[in-house]
Amino acid sequence: MTHVLIIGASKGIGLEATRQALQAGHHVRALARSATGITLSDANLEKVQGDALKAADVEAAVAGADVVIQTLGVAVGDLFKPVSLFSDATRVLVAAMAAKGVKRLISVTGFGAGDSRASIGFLQQLPFKLFLGRAYDDKGVQEGLIKDSGLDWTIARPGILTNGPRTGRYQVLTEPSQWRNGIISRADVADFLVRQIEDRTYVGQAPVLVN
Question: Where would I find the NAD(P)-binding domain in this sequence (predicted)?
């Protein structure tokens, strides 16, 4: 049984990854500010209320973990203000993992983060910059922190997220020449994340995920 810490586990991709990791037989420590509101119930689920920006909370949650899955998000209203959540939380997490000797990090950013921004189509460039630019600028910083961390990292860059079902039929695009936007369900993103708990194929890579 692998001990997995999932940060941002109360909703979206994080909640779905929690569900799927439990189904796969892992022990899951679910860290979120609203962890007590997680409706899942399982003997292998440990709900931990904490803040991804607080070093003490994160270091305590990392202790004893084999793998960390980081799924962070901001509210729509926050997209129009300066964004630093992704980089700030990653600095805290990388330091905590180093302190506790935990090496494996699986993190979600998105298509358009880091060097994948160059693959955004011409017609999508302006709306992307207007609506998502602040968040994705910070996700770019986040990716740099992860890549420089010395950890065994995998970064998942999903395209446009939907609430569709888990299909297991999605593309993992590893080469820049393949990168493109597309849709993918949160459940399928979670499927990829949970597979990386035991699969090291994509260590040191940042693939784009689309249907």
Answer: 8-199
CA distance 111 to 208: 6
Place of tokens 């270091």: 59
User: What are the φ/ψ torsions at residue 209 (nearest 5 degrees)?
Assistant: -115, 120
β-pair type (152-158, 171-173): unpaired
What is the rounded CA–CA span in Å between residue 65 and residue 101?
9
Which residues span the domain enclosing 59? 3-210
Please report, in tens digits, the pLDDT of each residue of the chain (211 residues total).
Answer: 899 999 999 999 999 999 999 999 999 999 999 999 999 999 999 999 999 999 999 999 999 999 999 999 988 777 778 899 999 999 999 999 999 999 999 999 999 999 999 999 877 887 778 788 799 999 999 999 999 999 999 999 999 999 999 999 999 999 999 999 999 999 999 999 999 999 999 999 999 999 9
Contact between 164 and 185 under an 8 Å Cβ cutoff? The reply is yes
Q: How many domains does the chain have?
A: 1
Is 183 within 8 Å of 133 (Cβ atoms)? Answer: no
Which is nearest to 210 in space by CA: 180, 175, 167? 180
Distance CA 158, CA 86 (A): 16
Q: CATH number, domain at 83?
A: 3.40.50.720
